[in-house]
Request: fold
Amino acid sequence: MRHEVTAADTALAVGSGDVEVLATPRLITWLEYTTAQLALSALDPGQTSVGTSVRIRHRLPTRVGDTVDVAADGPEVDGRHLRFQVRATNSAGQLIADGELERVVVDRERFLANVP
Reply:
């Protein structure tokens, strides 16, 4: 999945820093979206997946106007746990981030019923 970095995606805009480069929280959102889409193939009707663990190394800054390609391998299935290896590259093909995300399969109605 490809994203263009805008001013709204910067650390300054999201409050995670004071520089106008891609914010780590926005990058994590893009990575999580990618894994949530891949997780759909492992779900039965009435199920969804929720993010439970994020281990990301944000290796290089990315300027506004550049593009970021986000990809994930997986899922590696362990019961209800889905593990994904994730990575992001800039328009020059440089690795800007990599790591692992974990999601857990839950029954959607039961999950929502337990939200306080």
Q: What stands out?
A: DSSP finds three helices and five strands in the chain.
